[in-house]
Structure formats: C-alpha cells, structure tokens
Amino acid sequence: MKTYILFTKLSSEVAKKVKDRSILGRHWLEQIKEKCPSVKFINHYALLGKYDFMDIYEAPDDETAVKVSLISRANGAETAESLSAIPYMNFLELTKEI
User: Fold this and answer.
1) d(CA 58, CA 90)
2) What does pTM read for this prediction?
3) 6-62 confidence digits (pLDDT tens)
C-alpha cells in the first residue's frame, strides 16, 4: 500500500455549515469506505491556513487516490490535492543511489 496525504479546502458554502461538520465528515468517510474499501485512514487533521483539512491514508494505487480526491470534491471541497508520500528513512536510502 502507498501512503497519500490529502489536503482539502472546503467551498465557502460548505465552510459556513460548521455545525454540520461532523455529519458531513461522516457522510464523506462512509462514501470513501463504500467506493474505496481498500483505503485505510491513518489520521485526520483540521488545519489553520491554506487548507481546512489534511488526511493521511494508504491506498493500493494512484487511481484509488484519485477517487478519494474526487469524492472529496463531490462532497463540497473546493480543492482536494493528494500527494504521495514515502517514509523519510526510505527517502534517505534513495539518496544513497544518487
């Protein structure tokens, strides 16, 4: 499984529904579990800054990561940016090959 980081910025319409955030978040997660059952979430964070949320998850491939981003967009995200990530120690091993 590959590790991905999803940065999400909510649309202004959805961001105004702060009191519904828990319900909307559960609905989003249910859709991910239904449409991408192989995805395993590691952690969820609310952010202050450019993005509203950061989710770290594992998925088998890039296509599944795209689905996660698309589901986020379909649920009111203005932007949903997924980045692949590797453990830092693996990165250091790669630098030895350069």
Assistant:
1) 16
2) 0.88
3) 999 998 888 888 888 888 889 999 999 999 999 999 999 999 999 999 999 999 999
List beta partners, residue 58: 3, 40
Convert the pLDDT of each residue in 70-81 to its tens digit. 999 999 899 999
- Asked if residue 67 lies in contact with residue 36, where contact means CB atoms within 8 angstroms, the answer is yes
Residue 30 CA to its chain's centroid (Å): 14
Phi then psi for residue 13, to 5 deg, are -65, -45
- Judge whether 94 and 14 are in contact, CB under 8 Å: no
- Among 38, 43, 35, 41, which Cα is nearest to 74's? 35
Residue 42 neighbours by CB under 8 Å, 6+ apart: 3, 56, 57, 58
